[in-house]
Amino acid sequence: MRDSYDVVIVGGAVIGSAVAYYLMADPDFDGTVLIVERDPQFRQASTSLSAASIRTQFSNAINVKISQYGGQVIRDFADMMAVGDSRPDLNFHGGGYLFLATQEAQAETLRLNHAVQRDCGADVLLWSRDELAEAFPHLRVDDVLLASYGRSGEGWFDNSGLMNGFRAKARDLGADYVVDEVVAIDRQGGRVSGVTLASGAKVQTGTIVNASGPRASRTAAMAGLAIPVEPRKRSVFVFDCAASPEGTARLNQGRLPLLIDASGVYVRPEGRFFLTGCPPVEDPAVDCDDFAPRHEEFEEIIWPVLAERSAAFEAIKLVNMWAGHYAFNTLDHNLIVGRHPEVENFIFANGFSGHGLQQAPATGRGVSELIVHGGFRTLDLTPLGVERVLEGRPFLERAVI
To answer: Which GO terms describe its cellular component (predicted)?
Structure first.
């Protein structure tokens, strides 16, 4: 590790590693990059504990386009991230997302979202109750008014594979990683100039990128800045099913989608098992080290909803559970990306609110464009900048899970 780098990235999970990759892969960048990561096994990283899926079914065009680019990267990942003979396979399962609406307000939201999605070229279908029943005969659909199904470009994949692919390629291209923790940031007026690590090392830098996930507010505070990002716990459950409905779909080779019930409960196949979760009834900020899953969510919320939605889910057995953290943006549940207007060499890549994996490629590319070229060149992420936070001006996304 040097004592000075052009760019220091705080956080080495999927967002930080994506930024590092896009910087090092840009032929116009000839600088040095250091990624500082406190947890070398990524045991508590939102990346590692994610349900690892991608969708284009958002309500605003920027988020749709961000995910479309993410899908392109997932498809091309083996070629993009090849290092020597290693070609990482993300094992993408194109099962799609299936949103159900049981109230007219929910159905109208699906219609509005669908118009945005189709304008962006997303392959999303709106289905009537009868069309839904024909496609997925295991579902009870009497209460469903409308369904929205992602026919292509949506599914789930290897979460750690995405992070490790970016990480390995960035290192191969010359980025340095260090296992340490940023404990202080040097700031003089309108610029940051370096970081102090827990080991005592001091590193000078021309740019700092905050990619520290649920700890983003702590990192920002070291530079005298504030963002509305806090850790929110999400429990994930894995269950076995006595009479699995996987294989019963009448499209997509029998594969079931990731179902989002109107209640907010989601479920998708995971090998021979199923993975499920739900929005918590109460959703307070939690300690950064609190990873105890909320078992009662499975018993009291999830299982009754699943059993009501499909007879196949009446006899299920919980086999595993864990909890991860959303880096939750309390203003509008959308990512914050870009320079701080008062400290322009401090760049945010934070507040993904559960969408960090699918948004990592576009975020990494966008941040690298800011650093190398002085502005966004491919997808304009300006509306997602920190200015809206400082002005208290939400950039709303209706399709938040």
So the answer is: cytoplasm
